[in-house]
Amino acid sequence: MRRLAFFSIVVMLALAGCTTQSNKKPLSETESRQYTESGKLIVRTTFEVLSGQLSQALARGGVSEAVTYCNLRAYPLVDSLSAKYNVKIKRATVWVRNTDNKADNDEEIILREYIDLKTEEKHLKPILRRKANGDVVFYMPIQITSPLCLNCHGNVGTDITTADYDIIKKLYPNDNATGHSMEDLRGIWSVTFLQK
Ligand code: HEC
Fold first, then answer.
1. Span from the CA of 36 to the centroid of ligand 1 (angstroms)
2. pLDDT tens sequence across 138-173
3. Domain boundary assignment for the chain
């Protein structure tokens, strides 16, 4: 009897393994191409609007005016893209300003991969991964590609005036998102294509 119970547990585990396995089936070439295309489009569209608005706000009223424009929630576009593609759009990092953007385990693994590739001076390409629940995640590196970013993520005292940093610190007392230079990795885009 005990042996039978043991046997059924083994069978159940094997079946459970199978279902996760089937959800995790590798992406076909067509799927990979489609997810990559949509992922790139979503990231590019979001980034263009965000950096456009950021630079306008900076020109209008400096850091105090622009400080709320580096938050995806400030952009209705993010909601409309999320609904259109049934995705969750996130920026994730380990050098966190807003703790909502802290990388989860999977994101941290990807970010570490990019950090290693960058150290080896390799090209940083988008990465696609399918999760155990079937969702597909599109990742892309976020680098400091414009001097604009240094206004709020560069060195305090040189790139960022201490007065401006006071404004940032007031909103984000545990800020860990300064000290960056041009071309630095700042984090990753993480776009989850929800299967349901
Ligand atoms: C006017 C100041 C300002 C500028 C300019 C700015 N940021 Fe930010 N950045 C912030 C603030 C404030 C947050 C926190 C946003 C939030 O609450 O989600 C942030 C958050 C982020 C995050 C999310 C991770 C985290 O630490 O919360 C990334 C990634 C990021 N910025 C990248 C950039 C890049 C790349 C640029 C240049 C294109 C840039 N930022 C320009 C102020 C700025």
1. 24
2. 999 999 999 999 999 999 999 999 999 999 999 999
3. 27-193
192, 136 Cβ separation under 8 angstroms: yes
pLDDT of residue 57: 96
Question: 171 vs 168, 174, 175, CA distance in Å?
Answer: 5, 9, 9
Kindly give the distance from the C-alpha atom of residue 160 to the centroid of ligand 1, in angstroms, as a whole number.
13
Ramachandran assignment for 62, one of left (phi > 0), alpha (psi -120 to 50 degrees), beta (any other): left
Q: In ligand 1, which atom is closest to the CA atom of 177?
A: 26
Q: What is the pLDDT of residues 3-43, one digit of tens each?
A: 555 455 444 544 454 444 456 788 999 999 999 999 999 99
Residue nearest to atom 3 of ligand 1 (CA): 152
The pLDDT score that the predictor gives to residue 20 is: 45
CB 152 within 8 A of CB 164: yes
What crossing angle do the helices spanning 162-171 and 29-66 adopt, rounded to 10°?
A: 120
